[in-house]
Amino acid sequence: MRALAAAVIALGIPTLQPDAARVLADMRQALGGEAALAAVQSFSASGFESRHIDGTVASTNIEWTAALPDSFVRVRRMPTPMGNDVSTDGFRGEALIYRRQSPLPYPASLIQDATPVERARHEAVVVRERKRAFSRFATALFGPSSIDPVDVSYQGQRSVAGRPCDLLLLRASDGNTATLAVDAATHLPVSLSWMAVPSVTVSTTAYVTTTESARGSPSSAAPPRLAVQAPPAGDPTAGLSPVEHQILYQEFKVVDGLNWPHRFTEKVGDKTSNTTRVGKYKLNPKIDPKLFDPGRR
User: Fold this and answer.
1) Taking burial as the number of CB atoms within 10 A of a residue's CB, which of 184, 200, 208, 211 is the most buried?
2) Predicted confidence band of residue 236 (pLDDT cuts 50, 70, 90)
3) Which residues constitute the domain of residue 14?
4) Would strands 163-172 and 42-53 be described as parallel, antiparallel, or unpaired?
5) For all residues of the chain together, what is the average pLDDT?
6) Considering the chain, what percentage of its residues have pLDDT values greater than 90?
7) What is the CATH number of the domain that holds 286?
């Protein structure tokens, strides 16, 4: 019972049924144990993210850095014909973090003409989304997080990814729900699933890889020319029906006493949308405070 109480305090979960507390306590033990998890005050993870878009795969170097309990950034570095595109997004408390360094033109902001009140309201929504996205990642490392507080209830057992799993329903204060599947034998997290409209990726740039030379013939030595297209007006997800989103937690490996996943496969419906492979975790690394500077530049 002392271990169960420690798990409840560490996770910051308001309400736990006895069966839910048992499943989470067993899961945290399988991830490394209370002492090892409690010793993590900050961490970083680096690897590669592969986005599956319209039958093509775009790969990006990616790194997460978290200073617990309330600061997190994700840095994506994507090579382009014009140079590296580096974007940083995350949160520090209730402050939004967003920075971008790129040779590509910045897309027009959806709130560039907004009032200060409208801008603050929009950024609060984005921060909540960032926190929820981080929590979906961190659930496989620690269990449900106080960054996105949830009530947890036990839903019984079902086969997930071919394995008998205990199912936990996670319900946030805004009514958002997700289902965490935990392997009944190994007690490791298997997946997190929730219902939402499909995400829509809109490209506003295109490259012309050959240009006409002064004589009118193609010149393969010419640099790529960037064509900028206006994004479609309105919400591209309007009218779309919710579908199941799922993150599969895979390839668990013990590093520095913690048994953490090194592969995250994200699916929308029956299609893979993202695959992230973690090459290395660092526990309690030295972090430059400027990394968590809010704002844009």
Assistant:
1) 184
2) low
3) 2-198+243-292
4) unpaired
5) 83
6) 61
7) 2.50.20.10
